[in-house]
Specification:
heterodimer, A: 212 residues, mainly alpha, 7 helices, 80% helix, globular, B: 105 residues, alpha+beta, three-stranded antiparallel sheet, 3 strands, 20% strand, elongated
Chain lengths: 212, 105
């Protein structure tokens, strides 16, 4: 019995209804859109600071409350159709997570410094392309592991949109904002398609009687 | 242990687990904290009566625990592996692994 495959099937089952994708898409699209608006507001204006606070509040509310909303939707929609599963906590290794967190912080700091440099233009071209490739690899891995075709489409879209945004040459901040907005919208679309397919394929089941 | 002894150890394998349907059920519960009846039904492709019967046998042997509860307004039958069941499943896996290895030598 390949228990890894059984666990992957359980993860795929959890993602099948599309709710988590839609939630992640809303988060990314919101962050991308707000960051782009902040950029257009102009640095050191009142609107810039208020919008920045708004962005932070949006991130906290969606990240904090999103899990609760997804769970509520699954209780009403998913569990009566294809059942309920509870996962064991992922065995994160503290040192690896800390190293990843520190690396992310350093990378963010480097990008922040680079964005103020005179050659910011070429950084704004290559960073979105790089992000697109990284996202493509991540989505491809998810597609392979979970055997969900739509993640392959997301992988292809990520790479293409990264190249397109890089080619536009709008700069680092705006480029990344557009990238996250695009990926967020793509996740909302694929998640919605997944949800519609899921609802069409699975009627709610009354275990005491016939399918409803 | 010699190869013939390893193969003979199959005679002592846990017959409760060594049944395809129950093996699948325990494999699923081994990787998860819990799963409900509907999920087990969709994964095992068993009939409702058949699945209920296998779950009852596993519960009687104290390999799994069954809890009838509600999620919102939806009644749910939640199954989880017990400590006894986990130990028995791991022993069974180890036995099978040794036997299969001996068969290929």
């Amino acid at each position: 019995m390949n228990t890894k495959k059984i666990l992957n099937r359980a993860y795929a089952h959890w993602l099948k209804d599309g709710f988590a994708e839609i939630g992640a898409g809303i988060f990314m699209a919101g962050v991308g859109a707000l960051r782009a608006i902040i950029h257009f507001a102009g640095a050191k204006t009142a609107a810039y600071y208020w919008l920045s606070i708004g962005l932070l509040a949006f991130m906290i509310v969606v990240a904090g409350g999103g899990g609760y909303v997804v769970k509520l939707l699954k209780t009403r929609v998913t569990y009566p159709r294809t059942g309920y599963t509870a996962f064991k906590p992922y065995p994160y290794k503290y040192r690896s997570m800390l190293a990843l967190f520190i690396a992310g912080g350093i990378l963010g700091g480097v990008l922040g410094v680079l964005s103020t440099q005179p050659n910011e233009q070429w950084i704004g071209i290559f960073i979105p392309i790089g992000q697109g490739i990284v996202a493509g690899i991540v989505f491809s891995y998810a597609a392979l592991r979970l055997e969900e075709k739509r993640f392959y489409y997301l992988a292809a879209f990520s790479i293409v949109i990264g190249i397109l945004i890089g080619a536009l040459g709008v700069g680092l901040v705006l480029g990344l904002s557009f990238f996250y907005l695009s990926i967020g919208l793509a996740l909302i679309v694929t998640g919605s398609v997944g949800l519609v397919q899921y609802l069409r394929g699975h009627a709610a089941i009354d275990l005491k009687g016939e399918k409803q | 242990m010699s190869d013939s002894e390893t193969l003979q150890s199959m005679l002592g394998v846990d017959r409760l687990i060594h049944e395809p349907a129950r093996l699948i059920i325990l494999s699923i519960l081994y990787v998860l904290v819990s799963a409900d009846f509907l999920y087990l039904l969709s994964e095992t492709k068993l009939g409702r009566g058949n699945l209920s019967s296998h779950l009852k046998r596993l519960e009687d042997a104290e390999y799994i625990r069954i809890e009838k509860t509600y999620r919102g307004k939806t009644p749910m039958t939640i199954c989880r592996l017990s400590g006894t069941g986990k130990a028995a499943f791991e022993t069974y896996r180890e036995q099978l692994k040794n036997v299969v290895a001996a068969m290929y030598e």
